[in-house]
TrEMBL record:
PANTHER family: LEUCINE-RESPONSIVE REGULATORY PROTEIN (PTHR30154), TRANSCRIPTIONAL REGULATOR AZLB (PTHR30154:SF34). The keyword Magnesium does not apply. Residues 175-235 form the HTH asnC-type domain. Keywords: DNA-binding, Transcription, Transcription regulation. This is Lrp/AsnC family transcriptional regulator. SUPFAM superfamilies: Dimeric alpha+beta barrel (SSF54909), Winged helix' DNA-binding domain (SSF46785). Pfam families: AsnC_trans_reg (PF01037), HTH_AsnC-type (PF13404). The keyword Cell wall biogenesis/degradation does not apply. The lineage of its organism: Bacteria, Bacillati, Actinomycetota, Actinomycetes, Pseudonocardiales.
Length: 320
């Protein structure tokens, strides 16, 4: 289990993935060497990493939730194959091994034709059903996660750490090849130093700093933290497919965003119109959550719960 310093470290990195360790050490009451050592351990032993990601809308991409039902003997292999696709994230085996859930980013103007996931899955052997649900509006996710809601930092400390919030551009941004090189390095390591970024782009460190600030302020680039729920003591995770009365959809989505158990919530197309990914301490806590906070959502008609059995791939950004 994580101690208070490590939980504070992860919460701070979720707020600003490139925060200086010296500033973070002062906030947590430890040395910057201690912060750096703790982060190095979490990264090497627990797979924690900070990465840079591009907002889908900023570059003309669309986010989809994909559910795949296939024969039991094919689930593990297909999940691994989906995890290798650059457009996928959060690939997980769910519902007792009966299905795979994942998210996919594809160009908004040519969704199925250019998507290896959406175009090929229906023709894949041993796949017995595929449903794709377009994300229409995100209530919680991206720069926010359970870390931002459940960590030890006070509201004042969080506000102090938060970088200026970038506004999404009105039209999709055209990224240059050099931008792509910059973003590719940040996708692998969001805390890569300016020297490494300069070497990858051929720019000076001053130019890299300026472009990085422009991409963040322009609503193109953000930073996220990959951390497995079990590291936070959350061992019961599930996807919830909720049907809500249309007039209550916004209120229900905003309520979900405030729940400490929710890591992602969005309005979607499909039979159900609201999706949430939830993380609880155990199955008993999940039951209490479903019969308490979820049952009290405004306009709720029905809920389908898909427990996650294995998380095959966490968040992996799409560059360009």
């Amino acid at each position: 289990m994580l101690d208070a310093v490590e939980r504070g470290l992860l919460q701070a990195l979720q707020i600003d993935g490139r925060i200086a360790f010296s500033r973070l050490g002062a906030l947590l009451g430890v040395s910057d060497q201690t912060v750096a050592r703790r982060y190095a351990r979490l990264r090497a032993e627990e797979g924690v990493r900070v990465f840079g990601a591009v907002w889908p809308e900023a570059v003309g991409n669309q986010l989809w939730m994909v559910r795949v039902r296939c024969t039991p003997d094919a689930v593990a292999g297909l999940a691994r194959a989906l995890a290798r696709q650059p457009e996928t994230s959060w690939v997980q085996i769910a519902s007792g091994g009966a299905e795979i859930l994942c998210m996919a980013q594809v160009p908004a103007d040519a969704m199925s034709a250019e998507s290896a996931v959406l175009s090929r899955l229906p023709r894949t052997p041993r796949v017995v059903g595929v449903s794709a649900h377009c994300v229409l509006h995100t209530f919680f996710g991206g720069t926010e996660s359970p870390l931002t809601k459940n960590g030890p930092l006070t509201a004042a400390q969080c506000a102090e750490l938060a970088p200026p919030r970038g506004e999404l551009p009105g039209e999709p941004v055209e990224l240059s090849d050099v931008d792509g090189a910059l973003l590719a390095v940040l996708a692998r390591d969001g805390r890569a130093g300016f020297r490494s970024l300069a070497e990858a782009t051929g720019w000076s460190q001053t130019s890299v700093r300026r472009r990085l600030a422009e991409l963040r302020a322009g609503g193109v680039l953000y930073f996220d933290v990959d951390v497995r729920p079990a590291l936070l003591g959350l061992r019961a995770t599930a996807g919830l497919w909720l049907t809500v009365a249309p007039g209550e959809l916004t209120a229900a989505g905003e309520a979900l965003a405030r729940h400490s158990e929710v890591s992602f919530a969005a309005a979607t197309t499909g039979v159900s119109n609201l999706y949430a990914s939830v993380q609880c301490r155990d199955s008993a806590a999940l039951y209490r959550y479903l019969t308490g906070s979820v049952a009290g959502l405004p306009g709720l008609v029905s809920v389908e719960t898909a427990p996650s059995m294995e998380l095959v791939k966490l968040a992996t950004p799409v560059v360009g």
